Chaperone protein HtpG (Sinobaca qinghaiensis), 559 residues
Amino acid sequence: MTTKPFQAESKRLLEMMINSIYSQKEIFIRELISNASDAIDKMYYRALTDDTLTFNKDDYYIKLRTDQENRELVITDTGIGMTEEELEANLGIIAKSGSLAFKKENEIKDGHDIIGQFGVGFYSAFMAADYVTVYTKSADSSQAYKWESNGADGYTIEPAEKETVGTEVIIKLRENTEDENYDEYLDEHKLKSIVKKYSDYIRYPIKMDVSVHQPKADNEEETEEVQEEQIVNSMIPIWRKNKNELTDADYEAFYQEKHYGFDKPLTHIHLSVDGAVRYQAILFLPENTPFDYYTKDYEKGLELYSNGVLIMEKCGDLLPDYFGFVKGIVDSEDLSLNISREMLQHDRQLKLIAKNIKNKIKTQLKTLLKEDREKYETFFQSFGRQLKFGIQMDFGANKDDLKDLLLFHSSKEKKLVTLAEYVERMPEDQKYIYYATGESYNRIEKLPQTEMVLDKGYEILYFTEDIDEFAIKTLMSYEDKEFKSVAAGDLGIESEEEKEKEESEEKENEELFTEIKNLLSGKVKDVRASKRLKTHPVCLSADGEVSIEMEKILQQMPD
Ligand code: ADP
Ligand code: MG
């Protein structure tokens, strides 16, 4: 029995493929530029192994040109080109990747700069093209060839004239339709922005003729429009640069350029990780809370690049919700992309990166807290609320990550304190971490319940936000010290003696208390003698786990 190869209706297959795998048409530009970059990379690798060749960086570039009249977009490169056989194989067989083969043949282990691997990117051009023409001359051949196809009826290859080694891809753009505007690929601004968006960090110059206004030669008063060749990509991504060569201003400029916020970054983290999964990242802590931060509209996420090519604008999986305020980019060569290169195939690497990033952010925050308290407090003003929510989320699964990052107002020194600082200076006989809840610092200070605790010389944390008490209820304790509301029934302050005295006083006045209780019937649960009052005659206290403030909030919540 012979096994027969599958026949395929290639025209339909091509159509289906290109229209189903890419979410946006403009991606074809990214794909063609990536191919051009790969072709130049191959020249570079060739020069590494061939002594007769030298790789002079200036000779290698990618150029985008438009022909308005003929509605053509032309992408030229000075890369390795293709022989007739290579044309046949690489552009004639769908899903055949010459680049993947190149990587394997040359055993380029760190050949991670070569982008191609699926053998389909080129055909994405048919999303925008009526037909595509390729002129190419290989470094291994003196004869150039022309490849042409309308994407439907197959392709033709014939010898052609081309002087220099490299490839020229001509996209004959489709006519506009009601839904689709193909003219925009002829617009220099639009093109430039697409290149910037997806291919800014391609390592070779991407050139374009851009119109600029300049003073006329004969009359300086007037300006004229002239074409000027510009390099539109930044080439070396800032995250690949050495930290030591970068200044705060560089990072700030990047933050602004990326529109991460209107503010300045409070601090940044620049990572170059070479572990189980390799990646580079630049992360920013913003200074201010984005206006929509605590709303449903806010979308967390980092930009995700694979080898300098943009894959996802906002990859939410890279950040836990409680660090959702972090902005920045991640670039990894170890991602397994899906065929459209817009998504990931496995999230194993992503999970590893996310975990790693989470820890780095945590460490950075701890360092900031230790070394630049003022800055940390600015940060905490903006995002402390988020950290407290973070503790409460997922049934406290993250509490160990976050508990040391919390700050609370305190009765001591009227400044924000950490739980560690609180516990550190607790007198030996103090059993609990005390807290009091209220609308503001001043109001809490006037609560009758605080007096007794303060009198003992104990510090009290002042909770002014709804979330404060919920967060510590989730934490339950810190370094084995339980939290206790100053409004709780038993404050754990009295000595045995005092307790006994209290009990006997209670007995003596039993009738009085019963009388008061009857008078207040239904409004209070019990009436007792209190030891915690000094200047105030009476106070309300909560019996059990929920403080009066918390009860109020719970009552406001919809069922
Ligand atoms: P991939 O880039 O994933 O390999 P493509 O469909 O984009 O798939 O390209 C198919 C193959 O065509 C590439 O692997 C490469 O061998 C060849 N090719 C495409 N464009 C060029 C170019 N500009 N110069 C040289 N070879 C090219
Ligand atoms: Mg490709």
